[in-house]
Amino acid sequence: xxxxxxxxxVKLQLSIEEKTKKTAxxxxxxxxxxxxxxxxEYIRAIDKNPQLIKLIREATNKSTK
Length: 65
Prior knowledge:
The protein is mainly α. The protein is built from three helices and no strands.
């Protein structure tokens, strides 16, 4: 079931490591935003420039499958 928030957005549940959650909160706080807005901005940026995924993976030493 999708639950819509008052601003017509759909809630999304993610499973991430606790350390990643804390990092996301810290980044959001530093940028005067929240994790949801940060995630939405990230997805929109990747949609506009798919090359960003490769750059992010390279920056974090993840394999580019």
